[in-house]
Amino acid sequence: MLKPPLLKELSQIVGQANVFTDAEELVVYSYDATRVSSLPSAVVRPSSAQEVSDILRLANREQIPVVPRGAGTGMSGGSVPLQGGLVLSFERMNRILEIDEANRMAVVEPGVITGDLQRAVEARGLFYPPDPASQQFCTLGGNIAECAGGLRAVKYGVTRDYVLGLEVVLPTGEIIRTGSRTLKNVAGYDLTRLIVGSEGTLGVVTKIVLRLLSLPESVRTLAAFFPDVGSAAHAITAILSGKVVPRALELIDEGSLAAAGNYLKQDIAGGARAMVLAEVDGASQTTEREIAVVEQACREAGANSVTRAEEQADRDRLWKIRRSISPALYTIKPRKRSEDIVVPPARIPDILAQIQVIAKRHGLTIVNFGHAGDGNIHVNILLEDEEQSAAKLAEQEILAAVLGMQGSISGEHGIGFSKADYLPMETGAAALEAMKKIKRALDPNNILNPGKIFINAE
Ligand SMILES: Cc1cc2nc3c(=O)[nH]c(=O)nc-3n(C[C@H](O)[C@H](O)[C@H](O)COP(=O)(O)OP(=O)(O)OC[C@H]3O[C@@H](n4cnc5c(N)ncnc54)[C@H](O)[C@@H]3O)c2cc1C
Fold first, then answer.
1. In degrees rounded to 5, what are phi and psi of residue 320?
2. What is the CATH number assigned to the segment(s) 218-404?
3. Which residues on adjacent β-strands are paired with residue 176?
């Protein structure tokens, strides 16, 4: 509970209508896609960097935790106010400030929905490639903080590859600008890259300068169905070792296909046990040739059938299947454990085989889907309450196997609190301490999103 004088000060900064303390309002800001919930003391909705700065100065003075929040779609608990305090919500900072066609750039506030920016730039023949499967409801501020990936990362990279500059309010209240409106910039340390992926622990992003590309002339999509996940995984590695770089290359296993089919009330697989979704883009003649190469690689790897999406409606139908998997799995097992592992792409068949062995050893159901083209698989341990300890052991073994293949415990969902236990396994003690030193230097009172990334930042 915040004392009335503090609430009054907050109201003076953002206006009384933008400070919420009623229980039913606080609940809405208490959880994210991990479904872990913790109530804040208050929610504040700033409208400018100056207001954010004033809030952070107050929070420092009073030692109150502050948790930035976009749309709350995070999968690692980043926006859950674990220690109470203030939630800083960016619903009012949701303007696309500029689309600069000559320089192929956009300037946006953090609360802009990713899909809204994509539609706005596409209307002008431009292209913002990062496309998390949550793009219709997540925010660009959340994408920056998590360095979100997405379906097109295999060809176009992730959020960090499109951030040219930022306006950031440091935990102690200073407003800084990082980067510039240029493609090149080597002036000093790269603070832009430090903030991107820092999960709202080092600074609050209040403005974003994004790089844009030209909208590709043509896109072609196919779905290939396989008798087993191993042959689908081999199709992925065969495609990647060829000359074609698809813009998306997704793998969906039997359990994920069944879940999506049940959720969408349609028979997706027709008896197949794995599906590969591939998409190429570029000039029309090139995409026609490239999609044929991808189809051939799938058939050679053992695909029973291949469907090409000829019309936009067919493409939308295929991608709807992919995007429905995550919500579909939640409806089956709300308490599932979700991993976001990434391995060098050529190791995809090895890690999938390894996961099957681990699942069998612990008697667990584990389903896998995701961005196999860039090595990033979402591993879902579907469990009952009594399987919690077996699931924990399986999780440890899967993450150890990933690190043994020189991969990472998180490709795009971040560490948050849900993977904080495991971060030292990947970084080692010295790198972890270097990260904590940065945190302590920028946030000496540990007020900004405490309990995230590090169990203890001391
Ligand atoms: C169905 C579904 C599919 C998904 N698919 C993908 C996918 O394909 N790829 C992917 O990468 N992720 C995916 N995600 C995860 C999630 O959508 C992303 O992590 C997204 O970037 C979170 O954005 P958000 O606006 O919801 O942020 P939130 O969940 O609200 O916050 C995420 C983090 O960002 C911080 N933050 C938010 N705004 C700011 C700010 N202005 N300044 C500083 N820190 C801030 C928060 O403190 C928190 O640590 C998916 C999630 C769901 C539910």
1. -65, -40
2. 3.40.462.10
3. 168
Answer whether 201 contacts ligand 1 (Cβ < 6 A): no
Which token pair is 55?
A: 């809030």
For the chain, the structural domain boundaries read 4-89, 96-214, 218-404
Residue 451 Cβ contacting ligand 1 at under 6 Å: no
User: Which residue's C-alpha comes closest to atom 34 of ligand 1?
Assistant: 142
75 CB within 6 A, ligand 1: yes
Dihedral sign for Cα 49, 445, 35, 360, please. positive
> What percent of the chain is modeled with pLDDT above 70?
100
pLDDT digits (tens, 9 = 90+) for 36-87: 999 999 999 999 999 999 999 999 999 999 999 999 999 999 999 999 999 9
By C-alpha distance, which of 210, 199, 246, 186 is closest to 98?
Answer: 210
Distance CA 396, CA 378 (A): 15
Looking at residue 443, the DSSP 8-state letter turns out to be -
Q: Is 262 helix (H, G, I), strand (E, B) or coil?
A: helix
Tell me the best of 116, 136, 146 to mutate to test the pocket of ligand 1, counting ligand atoms within 8 Å of each CB and taking the most: 146
Quick one: which atom of ligand 1 is closest to the CA of 203?
43
Alpha-carbon distances, residue 58 vs 86, 171, 201, 422, 445 (angstroms): 11, 11, 17, 33, 12
Mean pLDDT to the nearest integer, 107-114: 98
96-214: what fold? 3.30.465
